Prior knowledge:
Layout: H1 11-23, H2 28-45, H3 53-62, H4 67-84, H5 96-124, H6 128-139
Amino acid sequence: MVAPPNQDMDDEIIADYNEAASILQQSPRGASAILRLATQKLCKQLGESGKNLNTDIANLVKRGLSPQIQKSLDSLRVIGNNAVHPGEISVNDTPEIALALFKLINKIADTMITDIKEIDAIYDSLPEAQRAAIEQRDNKR
């Protein structure tokens, strides 16, 4: 069973996620390909161009992307690519690999969007004087 999509993803990504979920049992390969497209759109939501997934991931790494999220993005990229082009990973016969991709895209969104949004909300609730003191401290480095 596919978990619901992270609601902090853009509507277009959620639509792709739901489309992939709707065809998972009939076409794991098709679901994987759609999730690869959703991953590219997710990189765009994260501030990258969305034109070349490999380049977008490299740029996110340069910006401090965690190794775990990099592995997740690269897994979605490679498995999604192989779903469309012949490769070493086959998702033709079993939905388990495709099912794992749904988990990965939600984990990426949790880490890169939802967690940051929640932390920012808490930080923004601090008194303005304390935030100013923190910013002054950090500017001294």
